[in-house]
User: What shape does this take?
Amino acid sequence: PFAPFMTEEIWRNVFGEKESIHLSTWPKVEGEIVEEELIIPIQVNGKLRSTLRVSRHETEDMIKKKALEDEKIKKYITEKPEKIIYVPGKIINFII
Assistant: This one.
């Protein structure tokens, strides 16, 4: 916590907890809340040109293929890219 002494006071006085907050369990992740789809920005030479909606479970090759098939991207890529930078689940950048 940012301010442990304040957090402890709020935990006990506002929420009425008997045990210290430092002894409580960490919150559990709820699987239903985790997004199954991602929106990945597609850049060409570092400039945002489009976005791509993909499943969380798609492979890097599948994502690159879909990005290259995007109509907005096709007009910027007339030759084979020198380099493709892919940060899993975050961004894809084609260097021409």
Remarks:
- The chain is about 25% helix and 30% strand.
- The chain has a mean pLDDT of 91.
- The CA atoms of residues 45 and 95 lie 5 Å apart.
